[in-house]
Amino acid sequence: MTTTAADDVGTTTQTPSSHQPPPKRRRSALRRRNALVGWSFILPNFLGFGFLTLLPVLILFYMAFTNWNVFGKADFVGIENFQRLLGDGSFHIAFWNTIYYSVMHIPLTIVVSLGLALLLNNKLRGVAFFRTAAFFPYITSIVAIAVVWNLLFSPDSGPINEMLRAIGITSPPGWLTSSEWAMPAVVIVSTWRDMGYYMILFLAGLQTVPRELHEAARVDAANVWQRFVNVTLPCLRPTMFFVTVMLTINSFKVFDLILVMTDGGPGQATLVLSQFIYRKGFEESQFGYASAAAVALFFLCIIVTIGQFLWNKKRNES
Fold first, then answer.
1. Residue 304: CB partners within 8 Å, gap ≥ 6?
2. What is the pLDDT of residues 241-258, one digit of tens each?
3. Cα 118 to the chain's mean position, in Å?
């Protein structure tokens, strides 16, 4: 009887613990629940990306190998569209105009925006106003910007040429009416519009530069230029890399400003790849051919971006 009672007591005390899941199982359930909560937050963004970005890109790659004008069936033509691109003179002009625009726009925007950031990083009276004023063009309507600058660049009565005549230049440039000066004019306007945004990025980078480094450089009798080259620029390397990549991608796909200011003219002096794609697709209804040009632009951006990442990695390792 004693043994039986002991057995009963032991059984009674062990029964509640037998219904509790082991700690490992509880941790696994908690991990699954946290994962479901996390996925519930990011799933809407993934669905939007999948249906609005990824799916159209996949369709674009398929359309690049077809002949389709919206009406009727898309006929598969293989690499015929890409072969046509290689022999298309307008595509060659658009490609080199895009390179020309990017080569001028990227370094000029970096220099101007970095200079503004260095100037407005100091404690000046009204610095918040000047920062806002520099950023304001970036959020202004592109149509308004184009209309105003077209008036400023007017070869006969524009204020810019009037100022050039006032300082003794008798034959100022024709700007947007000249095949030689149209692209530089677009670059000037684009730099003026974009400098505020990249100035903000450089300002954020300058806030991370330790003051102790500048104070140590002053103790070592380093002048302003030496402190900028040996202290500021090395600390700004991550920001500079990010700005360069973003500027490169945005320069390769420039479209709206050129469309409103020059519409690719005069002639084809400012025709870029994005506008070439727009014309072939939406004006001439050659969607397969336009998709092939878009794929070419996509790989151009990818190749240049990968090159920038490899170059930055090599610099960091050296």
1. 248, 252
2. 999 999 999 999 999 999
3. 22
